[in-house]
Design brief:
Blueprint (H helix, E strand, L loop, with lengths): L2 H5 L3 E3 L16 E6 L11 H9 L4 E7 L5 H13 L4 E6 L2 H14 L7 E5 L1 H5 L6 H19 L8 E4 L3 E5 L3 H12 L3 E5 L14 E2 L4 E2 H13 L4 E4 L2 E7 L5 E7 L2 E7 L1 E4 L3 E3 L14 E3 H10 L7 E8 L12 H15 L4 E6 L7 H11 L3 E4 L7 E4 L5 E7 L4 E7 L1 E6 L1 E3 L3 H8 L26 E3 L9 H21 L1 E4 L4 E3 L9 H5 L5 E4 L2 E4 L9 H5 L5 E3 L4 H11 L8 E6 L2 H11 L8 E6 L7 H9 L4 E7 L9 H18 L7 E6 L4 H14 L9
Parallel strand pairs: 2-3, 2-4, 4-5, 7-8, 7-15, 8-11, 15-26, 17-24, 18-19, 18-24, 19-20, 32-33, 32-34, 34-35
Antiparallel strand pairs: 1-3, 6-27, 9-10, 12-13, 13-14, 16-25, 21-22, 22-23, 28-31, 29-30
């Protein structure tokens, strides 16, 4: 550490106590570290002023400004300060906790401080980047956020990482391409694999397919090779005609019960990979489907092509986007590729056949684009239609069919004879998803596709540690992507099995049974089954607890607290934020995952919005108890905003739904007690919805008639 680095910026330091406190002693010794982030923060926020302000807050014995506090040099400086000043609490004011909190926790931990006694304040994404036109306002807001951070830090308790042993056995649910690929990848590393498939044979959807798009390889050959590889492994147990009927436990300690043709069996598993695949949606009622054998789906066409028999159709009309790319659901991702492949196959088998491909958009990439050019060269007719005028299936009195379509490129309606109509239908998740989501304690969409923990940060992980996701169980996708995801999921599952343990974060529920009335609400509603009933009292299984806070927020006797997000800590943040000019401020309870992600995206985009919000971070919107909102209004808050994950997803399965229901009840209670419910807002965001966060801030401050907070 150079002298230049040590002295860079502003240092405000209280005299060392004659008997310095250690972590856990009664004397609080808080250190505050303010980051310039080069000019990312310092160009807008007066960092020396914020540092000086922090030094004057109660229990703060050390405050320092640094240019880049996430740099190796300054991380060493933080460790020196923790030791030299005997700090037992720390507040870092810099960027976003979503990317850097773990780094600073590890840093103070290395210096001897409990990492759960560090609080993170975001003055870059929430101040400098979004209020860059007004340095005074940005600085005042930064001071408020630091004050809130110190208020919470004073009350932070020690926490511990929970280390769980993990053995080397893996359950894979689904014996299609994803399941078999994952099984082989795990087995190659020496792990024991239990491969469960509900059908009599392995192969999944591929057993119904003639050739694989876009390369055109024979599906049967590919499946046979995979099956031979799987059944030839001593450390892969294949269980066909089998379904998971019961599942208990957690990573490293799952107890699995399966039903195999009426016979029950049980085994242990340490990790789980879900690869249940997908199925075609029912096309009944669309374009004559069900009226005769001449109207079929792409999957049914694959079955006919597999037989090798002539199709006997001189005029074939293929209709794209059936039950997809509409109000119900988005793109099916593989329809264009499959349609082009099969159109060419029909043409190759009968060059005299007329093949018409009716589409909204032909979406092709890489090798698929070559197929589109080949299709045009082979004489396949493409017709573009719009949602405003969808194709119309007509069957005459003689039974002959035709399709009427308005070609938006030609600007005229065409009538196409149709000896065969092939529908490219959308997909939904497997029928077992409903049961499995309950057993696994994971989320799924309305279409029956499982939902990952985070589309970018955890695309192959569920919120439940130890459970992973692969292939078309997540969404429709081509075989290449299915297999790549399967390999990825196998690698994710292999990490804890190879290490022999996993460390779970110590943000968990703690229960005090003194006032417990045994109402059973907590153990009945916990989305992760982390609370069990023992002698009619709740017992927290910390290995399962994710710290969402649902139990704590709903406990009628307030017996449950969440480490790092206790009632007292959140109340202290509220009180600190509303100490001055409360009527000009909005207290925003923001979930750490998607909602805070949207706040960060707004910051990254330098999107300007009113500075009135003071964010209180919670792990899940489910943590927002009714009393927090009432406390805000009793302290004179101009407004309260609750921001959680966009429906239907939630990192804690049902947390946003529970929060939304709670807010409905709260508004009725507030009305009875004379509170102005128009000041209570809610917004549900995905991590990419920075613009929606900005719009909400603008709409809310305007609706509430607010002036910029802390101006002057």
């Amino acid at each position: 550490m150079s002298d230049e680095t040590k002295t860079e910026g502003t240092v405000s330091e209280a005299p060392a106590a004659s008997a310095p406190a250690k972590a856990g002693d009664d004397e609080l010794r808080v250190g505050v570290f303010v980051c310039d982030c080069g000019t990312n923060i310092a160009a807008t926020v007066d960092c020396p002023s914020v540092t000086e302000y922090a030094a004057g807050l109660g229990d703060v014995v050390f405050a320092e400004e640094g240019k880049w506090i996430c740099s190796v040099d300054y991380l060493n400086r933080i460790q020196e300060a923790v030791k030299e000043q005997n700090l037992n609490r720390a507040v870092v004011a810099c960027c976003t906790p979503r990317t850097h909190e773990k780094l600073f926790k590890n840093t103070v931990h290395a210096a001897g401080m409990n990492p759960y006694q560090l609080e993170f304040v975001s003055i870059r994404e929430q101040c400098s980047w979004v209020h860059k036109k007004d340095k005074e306002v940005a600085t005042a807001k930064a001071k408020d956020l630091v004050k809130m951070g110190v208020a919470k830090a004073r009350l932070l308790e020690e926490g511990d990482e929970i280390r769980l042993p993990v053995k080397t056995d893996c359950l894979i649910i689904g014996g299609g391409a994803a399941g078999m690929t994952a099984a082989l990848a795990a087995a190659d590393q020496g792990f024991m694999v239990h491969l469960v498939e509900k059908s009599p044979q392995l192969g999944g959807l591929l057993t119904q397919v003639d050739t694989i798009a876009p390369e055109g390889a024979k599906a049967d050959v590919f499946v046979a090779h995979l099956v031979d590889s799987v059944v030839g492994r001593d450390n892969i147990e294949v269980l066909t005609n089998t379904q998971v009927s019961a599942l208990e436990g957690y990573i490293g300690n799952y107890k699995v019960t399966v039903d195999r043709m009426g016979q029950t069996a049980a085994f242990d598993a340490s990790t789980i990979i879900v690869a249940t695949g997908m199925r075609e949606l029912d096309a009944t009622g669309h374009y004559g489907y069900g009226s005769g054998p001449d109207v079929l789906t792409q999957l049914e066409l694959e079955g006919r092509l597999k037989t090798g028999e002539p199709l006997g159709a001189k005029n074939v009309v293929i209709v794209q986007c059936v039950r997809s790319r509409n109000g119900e659901r988005g793109c099916c991702h593989i329809g264009c590729t499959v349609a082009l492949k099969n159109a060419l196959e029909i043409k190759h088998r009968d060059p005299e056949a007329n093949v018409y491909l009716l589409y909204k958009d032909l979406i092709t990439v890489k090798d698929e684009y070559a197929h589109m050019k080949e299709a045009l060269a082979e004489g396949i007719t493409t017709v573009r239609f719009s949602d405003a005028r969808l194709p119309e299936f007509v069957r005459g009195a003689d039974g002959a069919a035709e399709v009427k379509v308005f070609d938006v490129l030609l600007g005229q309606e065409l009538t196409l004879p149709a000896d065969m109509v092939v529908l490219s239908v959308g997909f939904e998740g497997d029928e077992t998803v409903t049961g499995l989501r309950g057993l696994l304690k994971v989320s799924a969409s309305d279409d029956g596709f499982f939902t990952e923990s985070h589309i970018k940060l955890g695309p192959l992980d569920f919120a439940s540690t130890g459970v992973y996701l692969a292939g078309s169980a997540r969404s429709p996708k081509p075989l290449k992507d299915v297999r790549e995801e399967a390999l990825g999921a196998a690698m994710r599952a292999s990490i804890p099995m190879a290490k022999g343990f996993v460390e779970a974060e110590g943000i968990v529920a703690k229960v005090d049974l003194t006032e417990c009335s045994s109402c059973a609400k907590c153990w009945k509603e916990c989305p992760f089954g982390a609370i069990e009933e023992v002698d009619k009292k709740p017992h927290i299984i910390e290995a399962l607890c994710k710290g969402c806070g649902l139990c704590a927020a709903d406990c009628p006797k307030e017996c449950i607290q969440i480490v790092h997000y206790s009632d007292d800590q959140i109340a202290a943040q509220i009180a600190a934020a509303l100490e001055e000019d409360p009527g000009d401020k909005i207290i925003a309870f923001v979930c750490h995952w998607c909602a805070l992600g949207a706040v960060d995206i707004a910051g990254v985009g330098r999107a300007e919005y009113p500075p009135n919000a003071r964010i209180v971070r919670v792990m899940c919107s489910a943590r927002v108890a009714q009393k927090y909102v009432i406390d805000c209004f009793d302290r004179g808050a101009g407004g309260v905003l609750v921001a959680g994950c966009e429906f239907p997803t939630c990192h804690y399965i049902t947390g946003n739904y529970k929060c939304s229901d709670r807010l409905v009840k709260l508004r009725k209670k507030m009305e009875r007690k004379g509170y102005d419910t128009s000041k209570l807002w809610e917004v549900w965001l995905s991590a990419s919805m920075g613009p929606k966060w900005v719009a909400t801030m603008k709409e809310m401050t305007e609706a509430l008639g607010m002036v910029p907070a802390c101006k002057g």
